[in-house]
Amino acid sequence: MVANASSPPARAHWSSRTAFVLAAIGSAVGLGNLWRFPAEAGANGGGAFVLIYILCVALIGMPLLLAETLIGRHGQRSTIASAAYLARESNASSGWALLAVLGVISSFLILSFYSVVAGWVLSFIATSGGDLLGSIAAGQPLAGAYANWTVEDIRQQMPDLFGDPWRMTLFHFIFAAATTVIVMRGVKGGLEMVAVWLMPAFFFLLIGITLYSAIEGDFAAGAKFLFQPDFSKAIQPSVLLSALGQAFFSLSLGGAALIAYGAYASRDSNLGGSAGLISFADTAVAIIAGLAIFPIVFSVGLEPNGGPALMFQTMPAAFHTMPAGAIVAFAFFVLAFFAALTSSVSLLEVSVAWLMERFGMSRAVASFGLGAGFFLIGLASVLSFNVWADHRPLPFLPGFENASWFDAIDGVTGKIMLPLSGLITAIFIGWVADRKLVNPETGLSPRLLPVWRFLIAWLCPLAVALILLFGLFPQLLG
Ligand code: PHE
């Protein structure tokens, strides 16, 4: 083991508390908010899903977010070593570091398909950017998106992209390379820099698009879809599991990213307050993104279908008929790219920090090696839309019999591995880790501390265990 129990290795730190919070928000806010949340809400019936999702964030996500960042800050080591360190200091088995081992593996796997989806975003930046330039050149900068295309052609863009493994690989490669280069530049010069520049730009664009959607779109229909639960339909356990999985994915939980980011936080960061702020910001962005997307979708008479079609077919078709749609389409994909990049760097940092510490590798070598690794694994996701379209890698796993490589990696990490890591984290922090070490790290007031202790020790493990069990094996409910 590299981690030495007495003195933490010298480590880089964020330059301020704000930088830490921005970087963590950058990790949390990503394609999970813009692509996965609206798609899951659309696929799971809207309002009821959103309500359960918010409960999952507040009661399970937020307490766990605090638990993860405190493991990192306390350890001041890479993720696995930080978890092992807290376990040893609490006279417990360092086997509890399994929570971080699972996290490192999940974030690496997530990155492989995340980069493919971000590649789609880049591809759409390229086409919508070209289209915008064309409109400007024609003296009509305020035209709708893809003004000279038919709606069929616009909708055809996504299947065309999915049918073209070379184009997908090219953009996956560009995104993977950008992620790798930023991580190579380190904590302050890379991770912090992208968060500090891109997150404010992201918020600015998001507010702009939402205002536009409120004015031009069918805001009432969008808001109704998001906020009015339809309780006439029974809530299936699979919907619960989707909401929980989405909360983990969106808050970057269970992937050890927040342990890694917590490890660069200094003593004066208030972790409890930061956890609240990060969860709030992430949820607000998901809902605002929903309020930007669904009104536009409804106003042109389209349906909020699930999956990638929402972002890559329905939205471009909607921008087509809207004033200034060409500008908005381009801005929308740029916004998604910014969000994706500040998340992907956190996903890569997890395994890079581990490799550097465990094997004494330089940051450059670790980043490059792992960057090449996730790019190559991502090719399985690229191919699952075309050449390997009928591969079924997990025929034996209930619920995953029909999953392609892409769906399998997304589903197994999001619905099994992240919640499992979260479950172990909750048991570890709630029951095993020494309270005298844990409680002071939280920075919580004497009033909030017992609430958090209750949530992390009782509600989180029980709820996550039950949702995992019944979500994966609905037949147990009879
Ligand atoms: N939270 C990120 C998003 O919403 C994805 C992510 C998952 C990042 C897990 C880190 C760890 O896009």
Task: Report on this structure.
With 478 residues, the chain is mostly helical. It is 74% helix and 0% strand. The protein is globular. The termini are far apart. The N terminus is likely disordered. Phenylalanine binds next to helix 1, helix 2, helix 5, helix 10 and helix 14.
What compounds are bound to the protein?
A: phenylalanine
Distance between the termini: 47 Å
Give the helix tally: 18
CA-based gyration radius? 22 Å
Concise overview:
With 478 residues, the protein is mainly alpha-helical. 74% of the residues lie in helices and 0% in strands.
What keyword list fits this structure?
Amino acid/polyamine transporter I; 18 helices; binds phenylalanine
Q: What does the secondary structure layout of this molecule look like, with pairings?
A:
Layout (H helix, E strand, L loop, with lengths): L16 H12 L2 H13 L3 H29 L3 H11 L8 H40 L13 H12 L2 H20 L1 H31 L2 H9 L9 H14 L6 H6 L8 H29 L9 H12 L4 H35 L3 H21 L21 H28 L2 H8 L5 H25 L6
